[in-house]
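Minutes, project check-in
Item: structure for the 205-residue chain
Input as provided by the requester:
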Amino acid sequence: MRIWHAGDRSKALCEHCRKIVATTFGYHDVPFESGRGVARQIMAASCDECGMVLAIPPQSTPTIRDARELATEPLEVVVAAPFLDALDLAAYRIDPSAGISLRKPLITYYVHKAIADEGLMDRLRQHAEKHRGTWKSWRAAPSRRLSMKLTRRMSDELAALVKKSALNKTTLIKSIVMDITSEILEPEEPAMMPELRRMAAALAA
């Protein structure tokens, strides 16, 4: 397999110039097709006439993959303070030294798990119905903003879960916190605690 270097020449079809053109390899910032994010300074071949990037060699694929993973999108929801109290207490039970740094891993752990776990998906829907009265009683509590940056892949998983569960984003996050309460806070010996503590230890390493 050939490795391409800056200054190497080739040919390619340029849609802008509407013909076969000469190309030159070099390092370029290449936006993703979705428009969300950029792979910076990757080896690519550009048209010698218009400058458009026309080809990306296999050697640039790992850098593009990493860039996609590092591209972040915001998740922000406003919830009553008791939701964050429960989330933070669960984080404390998993790792007393972690503080609020476990908020994001806990939420994303549940999002990723629920995509493939129909039982968990059903529980999230049930929480939205079962605890509606409790949530209304919390409206007098102070509001808190839960804010985090998600990778594009995790953001896509969250969007898929919103669609699959038929819950809006805020209700889904509230339901996740209620499941965290029932699975981590209420049992004397939570079944999932060993797995979550391994996750916390890996994050702290």
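Outcome recorded: The mean pLDDT is 92.
No further action items on this chain.
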